[in-house]
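Here is an idea for our session: we take a single protein and study its fold together. To get us started, please write out a protein record for me. Once you have written the record down, we can walk along the chain together.
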Amino acid sequence: MANSLGRTFRDIGLNEGNNGKGIRLQGKISLACKVCHVRAVSTRNYQTTLLFLKVFVMKALHQDSEGVRRSYDLTVPPIVRFGSGRIAEVGSIATVLGNRIWLVLGKHSFATCVGRESLLDGFHQHGLEFQEVAHSCGEPTVQQLAKAVRSLPLDRENVVVVAVGGGSTIDFGKALSALATNIDPDTDESAEEMILDRLEGVGRGIPIDTPPLPFVAVPTTAGTGAEATRNAVLSCPKRRFKKSLRSTLMVPRAVVLDPSLIGSCNRNVIAASGIDCLTQLIESFICRSRWSVPRALVLDAFPDAMTALPSLLKNPLDKAAQSSLVHAAFISGVSLGNSGLGLAHGVAAAIGVECGASHGLACAALLPVALRVNQKIAENDLARLNQLLGGEVLPAPDGAQQLVERVIELCRFAGTPTRLSEFGLKRNRIPWVAEHSGGNSMRGNPVQLSLTELVQQLESIF
């Protein structure tokens, strides 16, 4: 009993590494551990019971010495519907928000979307008018958004924007719904300037302060988590940057997660989006602004995602794997949006600007180096994630190393790029990439690298 109970303490991460609070809290929660352990043994469901205990412990860890919970903000979509076939419910959700639908679609993906007819039938059944107002093609740009805003119909009363597609399409729709109510340009050029003025760290810092048109997100890939966040990432080829349009008002009013929709994705899309999802789960779990609620969600989603991705790479129609990865992608969006990210995402944005590289593939190349950079300082957290994947209980340094090896092997199986040169990056451009790898993601990285140190790390995977 004593040894087994000790395992329970270790599995919830209760040690002196928890900001020195572990020892002080042992007396407070030892009874809970004992009760949880007995329940786990009797039900033969240790992992499920352990999850409840982890939530209890993390709650305790985020109280001050007087037992008062610290302040926090938690932003999530108010309506989330998950399950196969639930794309048919978009119409019933939209009727609560308006009576006219503006569709934002992937340029090619919607034609092959397995839920297309169910979606449109739902609109007909609820008497909803609908029209396609924009199509995304790759990651959205300032110029594409400017043209789309200018081409929108003038009558916007009772309009609901519904985006069906991958992360780029979701971001396009999210941005369009916000800009439709916040700018009124008379030329494409003035539209561009108005958008630039509302991007983080670019223009005059004008906020999105008028509520956007109601926005419903229906992702058809499992990776970016854009359906759960309050920002839209836009690139600007003219000025060579990638920045966010951000506001809490931009959180989707509803999200429909239908795992069957990813069945039409090819292997390359599954690999890129899936590793993006894993990167977000890991980076948000270990970032400098990590906290209990997003971390508890990651603990639930991460092991299934690590199992689901290779299963889908073998068989894209594996329903259990589809469900696990779609769920994990959403959780990754909730987690990153309420905590932060790290080096992989910070550098991926600059690689995208310099080379036009897919965001997911850039993350795949950068995740192993990001793990190595942060391995020592985050070894307890990385070992904790590794233990969720099963196998022998290892000391923290060994567990962290095993997780790094598992991720590298998964990337190898996925066939994603491992060297920056594979994106067409020139060696003499590495300093530029390092210099432009700033922003919130890099500030969230556990280890703060100097510019010289970052250049050295990127050189190592050139």
Q: What stands out?
A: The longest helix spans residues 292-314. The first strand starts at residue 80 and ends at 82.
